[in-house]
Design a protein that fits this description.
The structure holds 2 protein chains of 2 kinds.
Chain A (H helix, E strand, L loop, with lengths): L1 H34 L1 E6 L3 E6 L3 H9 L2 H32 L5 H8 L1 H5 L2 H9 L10 H9 L5 H15 L3 H13 L2 H9 L4 H30 L4 H11 L4 H35 L1
Helix pairs in contact in A: 1-13, 2-13, 3-9, 3-11, 3-13, 9-11, 11-13, 12-13
Chain B lengths: L1 H16 L7 H29 L3 H5 L13 H9 L4 H30 L5 H13 L3 H14 L6 H8 L6 H13 L3 H9 L4 H12 L1 H17 L2 H7 L6 H6 L1 H9 L15 H33 L5
Classes of the chains: A mainly alpha, B mainly alpha.
Chain lengths: 282, 315
C-alpha cells in the first residue's frame, strides 16, 4: 500500500517534474552556460558559442553603465517601496476589516489592481500626468486651505507616490485582510472590557498576529516589482538579447546578476523581519 | 439641574466616543475619512484617465478645462478601436488567455492533488524548488527557452504558452499549485478510504471527490490566472513573437498602429483632433482593461468568497 501510494504521488506530480526539467533546470543551465560565452548566430551554422570567461560580467559591471544604473535604481526603489506598501496595506486591511458600513464597496475598489494591473496601464497612468495633482487645481486648492503654501509641493509629491504605491497594494491587502478576519473577535472584546485603547489593541493584538505575514508580503512585493513589465531592467535584458554587440551571452549574464541581486534583497528583508518577529511576540 | 446636565454630557460623550472605542462616532468619522482619502488617491489616476480620454485635442490644450470635457468626444475611442483592431483582438485575447488559464487550472489541480494526498520521498524538495522558481525573475529562464522554441518551431504558436502552463510552469505556477494543495489537504481521510473500499482508484477519486472539493480553487485560478495572462506582455510577447497579439501587446504598440491607420482617415496636420495624444493612449488603455473590469464586477462575489475559503494566509 505504501509503495503504491509513493508511485501514485509521483504519477500525479510527473507533469511538474517534466515541466521543471524543460522550463527551469535546462534553461537555467543554458543561461549560466551562455553567460560565459559570446553567442553569435549565422544563418548557415546556427548558433556559435565562443568561451570568454567572465568577460560579459566585466562588461556589465565595469564598462557599460545602463544596467548597473537601473539595478541600483531598482534596489533603492524596492527598499523604499516595501515598507510603505506594507504600512499602507496594513492600514487599509484594518479599515476594511472594521464593522463600518460600505466596506464591501471599498474592498471592491482596493482589490481592483489584483485584476487589472499591468505594466502598460501603470506606465500610461504615471507618465502622462494621471498621478499628478495640478497646482491650482481643485484638489490642491482644498489642500491649500488646510496647509501653508510652502508645503504644497511636498503634498503633491506624496500624493504621487502614494497614488502609485496603492496600486501595488492589492495582493498585500488581501493577505493581511484574510489574516485579520481569522482573529477571534472575543479577543478584541476582552481587551476592550479591560479598557485597552485602539492604539493598545493594535500594538498588542493586531500587529503580533499579522506580523508573520509581513515576510510573506515582502517576498511577494519584491518578486512582483522585479517581474513587473514596467520595470526597465526587463526591457534592457530583452533588447540586449537581439542587440548585435551583446546578444544572448551578455543578456544571460544580465539576468543572472539580476536574479542574484533580487535573491539577496529578499534574503536581507526576510532576515530583518524574521528576527524581530521572535522579539516582538515574546 | 447640575446633575441632569452631567448626565447629559455623559450621554453625548458616550455617543461621540462610544461605549467602547470601536463603535464611537469619532472613531467612525476617522475611519471613514481615512478610507475615503486613500480610496480617492487610489482611484484618482483612473478617473483622470477616463475624463481625459473623452476630451478632444482642443480641450486637452485648453487651460480652462481640467476635468470635464467641453463636449463628450468619442473620437478618441472610435479611432483607437480601429487602431487596436477591435473587437477581433478581444476575441484573440480571450482565446489565448482562456486556453492558457484552462491549462494552468487543470495542471495545478493535478499536481496539487499529488502533493496533498500522497507521501513520497522528495516532497520537501519539490516544495523548495517551487519556492525557488517563484522567487527567480522570469527573465532568467527566458533566453534559452526562446532558443529551444525557435529550434522546435513552436515559437509564435499558442503551444509556446500552453506547454509551460500544462506542466505547472506557467505564470506564477507555484502559487496556483499551492492553492490547490491547500484545498485538497482539507479532504477528510475517511472519505478517501471509503472510496478505496468501494474500489475506486486514485485517478477516479481525484475527479470524483477531489475536484468537487476544490471548486473555490478553480474560481481563484480562473479569475486570477486569466487576469495574469491578460496583463502579461513580456513572456507572451516574446514567445508568441508578434505572430499572435493580445490586446495588452497591441496597446504597447498603439502609437505605431495608430499612425498606420490614420492615413486612410484624414490628415492630422489639417484636423488637429487626429493627432496622437495621451487622450488616445488613455482611451486605448481603458479599452484594454475593459473586459477584465467587466469580468471582475461579475465574478467578484464568488472570487472573494473563494479567497476567504482558501486560507491563502495559512502556512
Amino acid at each position: 500500500m505504501k509503495r503504491r501510494n509513493h508511485l501514485y504521488g509521483l504519477f500525479f506530480i510527473s507533469p511538474w517534474v517534466m515541466g521543471f526539467l524543460a522550463f527551469v533546470a535546462y534553461p537555467l543551465y543554458r543561461t549560466i552556460y551562455f553567460s560565459f560565452h559570446t553567442v553569435r548566430y549565422s544563418g548557415e551554422l546556427g548558433y556559435l558559442y565562443e568561451l570568454v570567461g567572465f568577460e560579459n560580467y566585466k562588461r556589465i559591471l565595469t564598462i557599460e553603465a545602463d544596467f548597473v544604473l537601473e539595478l541600483q535604481n531598482y534596489i533603492v526603489k524596492t527598499l523604499l517601496y516595501v515598507p510603505v506598501i506594507i504600512a499602507l496595506s496594513i492600514i487599509i486591511a484594518i479599515l476594511l476589516n472594521s464593522k463600518l458600513k460600505g466596506t464591501a464597496f471599498f474592498r471592491l475598489i482596493f482589490f481592483l489592481p489584483i485584476i487589472i494591473l499591468n505594466g502598460e496601464l501603470m506606465k500610461n497612468m504615471r507618465n502622462y500626468g494621471g498621478m499628478d495633482l495640478e497646482v491650482g487645481g481643485i484638489i490642491s486648492s482644498i489642500i491649500n486651505r488646510i496647509v501653508p503654501e510652502s508645503i504644497i509641493p511636498l503634498f503633491i509629491e506624496l500624493f504621487e507616490m502614494v497614488s502609485e504605491l496603492l496600486w501595488y497594494c492589492g495582493v498585500p491587502i488581501l493577505i493581511f485582510l484574510a489574516a485579520l478576519q481569522k482573529i477571534d473577535k472575543s479577543l478584541y472584546e476582552a481587551a476592550e472590557i479591560d479598557g485597552a485603547s485602539f492604539w493598545n489593541i493594535f500594538w498588542k493584538i493586531t500587529l503580533p498576529i499579522i506580523y508573520p505575514l509581513i515576510s510573506v508580503v515582502i517576498v511577494y512585493v519584491v518578486v512582483f516589482l522585479a517581474n513587473f513589465d514596467a520595470n526597465p531592467i526587463n526591457n534592457i535584458i530583452r533588447t540586449s538579447r537581439t542587440d548585435p554587440s551583446r546578444r544572448e551571452g551578455y543578456a544571460s549574464a544580465l539576468s543572472i546578476i539580476y536574479a542574484l541581486a533580487q535573491t539577496a534583497l529578499i534574503g536581507i528583508l526576510f532576515f530583518i523581519t524574521r528576527r524581530r518577529e521572535k522579539g516582538g511576540i515574546n | 439641574m447640575a446633575l441632569l446636565k452631567q448626565e447629559h454630557l455623559k450621554l453625548i460623550k458616550r455617543k461621540v466616543l462610544g461605549m467602547h472605542i470601536l463603535d464611537g462616532l469619532l472613531y467612525k468619522v476617522v475611519m471613514y475619512l481615512l478610507l475615503i482619502i486613500l480610496g480617492f488617491v487610489f482611484v484618482y489616476p483612473l478617473l483622470y484617465m477616463i475624463s481625459t480620454s473623452l476630451m478632444s485635442n482642443i480641450d486637452l490644450v485648453d487651460n480652462t478645462i481640467n476635468w470635464i470635457p467641453s463636449t463628450l468626444d468619442f473620437t478618441n475611442y472610435r479611432l483607437v478601436i480601429r487602431a487596436l483592431n477591435l473587437p477581433k483582438s478581444y476575441l484573440t485575447s480571450i482565446l489565448i488567455v482562456g486556453a492558457s488559464t484552462l491549462c494552468v487550472a487543470s495542471a495545478s489541480a493535478f499536481i496539487g492533488y499529488g502533493l496533498a494526498r500522497f507521501t513520497f520521498r522528495g516532497k520537501k524538495l519539490v516544495f523548495a524548488v517551487m519556492i525557488f522558481t517563484f522567487i527567480m525573475p522570469k527573465v532568467l529562464f527566458f533566453i534559452p527557452t526562446y532558443q529551444v522554441y525557435t529550434t522546435l518551431r513552436i515559437k509564435g504558436t499558442i503551444l509556446a504558452i500552453i506547454l509551460p502552463a500544462l506542466t505547472g510552469q506557467g505564470l506564477q505556477g507555484p502559487f496556483f499549485i499551492l492553492i490547490f494543495y491547500q484545498f485538497f489537504r482539507m479532504i477528510p481521510k475517511a472519505l478517501e478510504e471509503a472510496a478505496i473500499i468501494d474500489g475506486a482508484g486514485p485517478v477516479k477519486i481525484f475527479y470524483k471527490i477531489g475536484i468537487p472539493m476544490a471548486i473555490p480553487a478553480f474560481i481563484i485560478t480562473f479569475v486570477y490566472g486569466f487576469a495574469l495572462y491578460w496583463n502579461e506582455t513580456f513572456i507572451l510577447g516574446a514567445y508568441l513573437d508578434g505572430k499572435i497579439r493580445t490586446i495588452t501587446m497591441l496597446l504597447s504598440n498603439l502609437q505605431n498602429s495608430y499612425w498606420s491607420i490614420i492615413g486612410n482617415i484624414g490628415d492630422p496636420s489639417r484636423s488637429p483632433n487626429l493627432n496622437f495624444t495621451e487622450a488616445k493612449l488613455f482611451a486605448g488603455t481603458i479599452l484594454s482593461i475593459l473586459p477584465l473590469m467587466i469580468m471582475y464586477i461579475i465574478v467578484q462575489r464568488w472570487f472573494i468568497e473563494s479567497i476567504d475559503k482558501s486560507g491563502i494566509t495559512g502556512e
